[in-house]
Specification:
heterodimer, A: alpha/beta, Alpha-Beta Plaits, TIM Barrel, 2 domains, 8-stranded parallel sheet, 23 strands, 16% strand, B: alpha+beta, two-stranded antiparallel sheet, 19% strand, globular
Chain lengths: 500, 158
């Protein structure tokens, strides 16, 4: 056994004047960082195992713990940063692909922060949402090119639509990648607020069969858990082509996570690896995609909108155009910041493009081609708050998906170790001792609260612009101005510079 | 009467209920650090987390309507308050014979040998407010209510 070059990533500081040796930290850490030393009669911590998930810090009743970055510094080097060096040590030791969880965390520009929202002054009145009605209800689905009215009634038959009370949905996260209690929390929150959660590619657990009115069921490359009742249960069906965290890559749920419940829901043998291929093996072209879209529509009697979800990649506008023409009712685009339960680190951090550009490019292209009304656009992979949503809608989105933010509402602290199965917050794990840490009653309340809070804020921002319906903001890029952006960036985003 | 009920599916085995029970019965009711650092002779917690594998729950006195501990007490120290329904042990009269411990079908009475031998048990924190264990359970696994959270054949502890 040769020496490992690994050094701790974090430093745990215990304030002895506050620690009462109650050992809550010992009992709460699934990584076994804290231990009660019987000889010394005190708690000792193994920093090597710490992932900085803050579980012990938050649960400590006397707030005696602090976790900080390990202060060890490599010799200063403008090119080789500590992450680069550590990665090499790990790969030289293991010979394996580096894995990561959650989204791309590299310091790429955040374009949401380079766009500013307008407000009314003097020449047009702003609106106080507490005193005046404000409409943010959103319908997702194909809209007809024209409407026929006969005797004051709508004659045109509308294609199926999803009705959202807030323009925010919970993005696809499978049962398997996250726990059943996490799924239950999101399902209940979606029902309470009047929006949707998405099963991801893991099927719909029988306990959640009643939540179909607030559920989008996903059909992905592994086709796990897809059967007639599943398609019938959902309000919409999403074909997953790609994911922002790992464009071009499939999925792999390790056999350890496939317990009896996951096995039954996914319809695969217990303990077997659930492998979702990188492509759908029956989709090699837009024509093939059209075939699957219409197969699913046929199977559900044309009563449910069909989503197609793709990752934001270089040629996204042309791809989206193809998807619209293939018959999709909604296109979901996932940006390069989008999260995952597990992805190869290099893919997560360097494949794909920012969602802000992808959204602007797709909306522009669909408008130019005169087919924007044929699809709704849903974007995800980076939304952090309500002003990101308002900016997204102004750029052309009909609604947004949130995944990372939703999990944070449930307790996620972004330690990015989802792939280890040891999530101390009971979210990205199937270990029954950890899963029960997420009480779905509490989780549902927190997730619903987040959406309600954002709903208030969206109304405030709309009112400030003098707009009383989200519809009037959709694609209204004049409400945005760019700051610290190049001419080319402004051109792609289709917005003017601040001051213009 | 209002009782403390455990929802075992949400008990995370952190034992904060035990820690706050100790605080509630210490001389420093609002300061965990003092309660633990200044009282070296700390009485044991009156609520105990039982654990096996993924299963865990906090157990404390059920405050039975027909309490075996009250019936079995040889000195009359163990009593049931006729008004509040709380079963409590009068420290001064308790002789530490442990008969109540043998009689309790739930194993909810605890030996306290920190000073004089006495039987120690949940007193619902004096029933002035929600008991400390319930207030401080981080995962909503303890509730204080008139009705149990589930249908049960056990009523009033009988």
């Amino acid at each position: 056994m040769a020496l490992s070059y690994a050094v701790p990533n974090f430093l745990i500081e215990r304030d002895e004047s506050r620690c009462i040796d109650c050992q809550v930290c010992v009992r709460q850490c699934a990584n076994e960082v804290h231990k009660f030393d019987e000889d010394d009669e005190k708690i000792v911590s193994d920093t090597m195992k710490c992932v900085n998930c803050h579980r012990c810090v938050v649960l400590c009743p006397t707030k005696a713990l602090t976790v900080r970055e390990f202060p060890l510094e490599f010799k200063k080097n403008g090119h080789w940063k500590s992450d680069d060096i550590k990665s090499i040590y790990i790969q030289a030791e293991t010979g394996g692909v580096l894995l990561a969880g959650m989204g791309n965390d590299k310091p790429y520009p955040i374009y949401w922060d380079k766009m500013l929202i307008n407000a009314s002054q003097v020449t047009n009145p702003s609106i106080d949402p507490l005193r005046e009605p404000m409409e943010i209800k959103t319908f997702l689905g194909r809209k007809p090119a024209s409407l026929e009215i006969e005797n004051g009634k709508l004659k045109t038959k509308l294609p199926p639509q999803l009705e959202l009370e807030v323009p925010v949905m919970f993005s696809a996260m499978s049962f398997g990648s996250i726990s059943l209690n996490a799924h239950k929390s999101l399902a209940r929150a979606a029902r309470e607020v009047g929006t949707f959660f998405n099963t991801g590619e893991g099927g719909l657990h029988r306990d959640l069969a009643d939540f179909g009115d607030n559920c989008i069921v996903q059909v992905a490359s592994g086709r796990f858990g897809v059967h007639q009742e599943y398609l019938d249960a959902g309000s919409a069906i999403e074909i997953k082509i790609g994911q922002g965290a790992k464009p071009g890559i499939g999925g792999h749920l390790p056999g350890e996570k496939v317990g009896p419940e996951v096995s039954q829901t996914r319809m695969i043998p217990e303990g077997s690896d659930a492998i979702s291929p990188a492509p759908h093996h029956d989709i090699y072209s837009i024509e093939d995609l059209r075939q699957l879209i219409y197969s699913l529509k046929e199977a559900t009697n044309y009563k449910k909108p069909v989503f197609v979800k793709i990752a934001a990649v270089h040629n996204v506008a042309a791809i989206a155009s193809g998807i619209a023409r293939a018959g999709a009712d909604v296109i979901a685009i996932d940006g390069f910041r989008g999260g995952t339960g597990a992805a190869p680190l290099r893919t997560r951090d360097s494949v794909g493009i920012p969602i802000e550009f992808a959204l602007a490019a797709v909306d522009t292209r669909l408008r130019q081609e005169g087919i924007r009304n044929q699809v709704s656009l849903v974007i995800g992979g980076s939304i952090r708050n309500s002003s990101d949503i308002v900016k997204a809608v102004a750029l052309g989105a009909d609604a947004v998906y949130i995944g990372t933010a939703a999990l944070m509402a449930l307790g996620c602290h972004l330690c990015q170790k989802c792939y280890t199965g040891k999530c101390n917050w009971g979210i990205a794990t199937q270990d029954p001792r950890l899963v029960k840490r997420l009480n779905p009653e509490i989780g549902a309340r927190r997730a619903a609260n987040l959406l309600k809070a954002w709903k208030h804020e969206i109304k405030e921002l709309l009112g400030g612009m003098g707009i009383n319906a989200l519809e009037s903001l959709r694609g209204n890029r004049l409400m945005l101005r760019g700051i610290d952006l190049t001419e080319k960036e402004l051109e792609i985003l289709g917005i003017k510079a601040a001051g213009e | 009467m209002k009782r403390v009920y455990a929802k075992e599916e949400y008990c995370i085995g952190c034992r904060l209920c035990e820690i706050y029970c100790i605080l509630s019965h210490s001389e420093y009711k609002n300061d965990l650090i003092k309660a633990f650092k200044k009282s070296l002779q700390r009485p044991p917690a009156r609520i105990q987390v039982e654990e096996e594998g993924a299963l865990s729950f906090a157990l404390q006195c059920r405050h039975c309507d027909e309490a075996y501990c009250v019936k079995s007490c040889i000195t009359g120290a163990m009593q049931k308050d006729p008004e509040t329904g709380v079963v409590f042990n009068e420290k001064e009269r308790c002789v530490g014979c442990w008969t109540c411990i043998a009689a309790c079908p739930y194993g909810a009475i605890i030996k306290d040998e920190t000073s004089k031998k006495i039987a120690s048990k949940c007193d619902l924190c004096g029933q002035n407010e929600t008991p400390y264990c319930v207030q401080n359970c981080p995962n909503g696994a303890l509730i204080f209510s008139e009705e149990p959270p589930y249908k049960t054949s056990v009523k009033g502890g009988e």
